[in-house]
Each structure stands twice: as structure tokens, then as C-alpha cells.
Amino acid sequence: MAKILVCDPIHQEGVDRLxxxxxxxxxxxxxxxxxxxxxxxxxxxxxxxxRTRVDREVIETGRSLQAIARAxxxxxxxxxxxxxxxxxxxxxxxxxxxxxVAELTIGLLIALARGIVRGDRSMKKGAWLKKELVGVELSGxxxxxxxxxxxxxxxxxxxxxxxxxxMAYEILEIGREYLERGVRQVALEELxxxxxxxTLHVPxxxxxxxxxxAEAIRKTKRGAFLVNVARGEVVDPEALEDALRTGRLAGAxxxxxxxxxxxxxxxxxLENVVATPHIGAQTRDAQRKAxxxxxxxxxxxxxxxxxxxxxx
Length: 312
Prior knowledge:
Rossmann fold; 2 domains; five-stranded parallel sheet; 16% strand; seven-stranded parallel sheet
């Protein structure tokens, strides 16, 4: 029997599955970093989402840790290199959030194209901006998708169904099925220069940090719209704000920020910005699937011999 600490809220069905398998589970989904350091040495596994930071100090202190399970996609809150060096398995569930994040992406595209958020705000204030809110259709426009993994591909499929033309920037081959549907795989510079709408779906690493900076924005088609549902640090916020104020970009939508909750309120307050509080994975469907899948992976990991390297 293993002792498992659930550090962030996950769907109850996942917790139930761990308990039914005979493990001792403690749910403490408000644990602080300091609190985690005080108790982590009692546990064989941690289950986290994006809030809990599992850094080198936590890993070193957790002398019995065999696995760290992230009920979601991103692993940037976990020191995966050090964990694996210590023989700790790091698990996540990237496959479960695809539909939810892709649907949000399309929703943000439509919101930008039609001025939906501004229209809603004005109506609540008693204004009638019918003449001002003249939008554009997505059908027939070119969507540039930066990052063609699971979410990028699903976004592409939804966009094609709407009638958009799609080009993709990806370091690997995008697949014959997409090429046959008319998707063009292009260099980032061509994508920026030719796209009416651009969506970002890349992981955060040293190559993608500030991938969209002032120089990249200067190469972007004037009047384009940008949607970021990847990681906040993929975009330089100062360069983005300047481009939105000058009209270089017609609008932007973002679900992620370099600091969360965001502190750059001047950017969020712009009329041509749609901002959501990192809700890409926040659907009941995705949270249930993420909880069940990552807990199943954790059960499998705990069934294997302990490969934990003793702390030094």
C-alpha cells in the first residue's frame, strides 16, 4: 500500500480509484509550498495540477517519493529533470485536454472576429453599439497555427470545418492527412506575414520563450489577430501591448500569462483584448478525464519496483 498526497483539486472519481486500489490517500488541495516541505517525506506519490510547485527542494525532502502525477498537460511546475535523475516517475495526461482547449481557441477567435465581449459589456451598460461592432467572418480567412501537436491539430480540424484556410508552423512533419486537406506547412516568418488570425500552441522552453516578440510582431500581417492558449511567456507582453495600441495587431485574446494571476492590467484593460483566467482545461469533462487517466497511470507506476535513488 502506498501513501498518496493530492495537493490540488482533482475530480473525486480519480481519488476514489486510488482508494479502491487499496492505497492511503490524503487530499490537502490547499497545501502551501512550506506545508508540503514539512509533510512530503511521508508520501510515496504526489498528485498535482498547475498550482503546486514540485521543485528540487520538495523532491530532495520527499525521500520516499516514487511518482509525481500531474492531472493535466504542462510540467513546468515540476523539476522533471531532477525528479527523473532521482528515479521518480513523472506522469501527466496530455491527451485529455485537447478538445477543451481547442474549443476555447475557436471561441476566442470568434469573440475577436465579432467583438462579442465588447458588445456584451456595452449592453450591460445600456449602450447600443450596433453600428460600431462590424466584425469579420472566419470563413475564407487564413489561420496560422504555431505548434501542431494534439491541440494545434484539433484546432486545425475545427477551423477547416468553419471554412478557414490553415497554415502550420511545426518543426516535425504535420502529417499527410492534413496536407491532403489543404493545410500548408510553412516557416514561422511566412506564417506571421500571411495569417489573418494566429493561434499559439507550443510548449514553453528556451526556444519558445518570447517567440512572439517585437521583431516577430513587426513581421506579422498588419491588422492580424493573435490568440495565446499555450503559455504566457511565449509572448513578450510589452511588445504585444505596443502592437495593440498602435494598431499593428487588430486584437488579441489570451488565456495564459507570464505571471498568474496577471499583474499587467494595462494590457488586459485594452478594448481590443479578450482575456480569460487560464480556463483552457476548465471543463467538467476534461477535469474528470484528466483525474481518471492520471490516477490510472499512477496506479500502474506504483505497481512497479521502486526505482527511487536515495536522497543525498
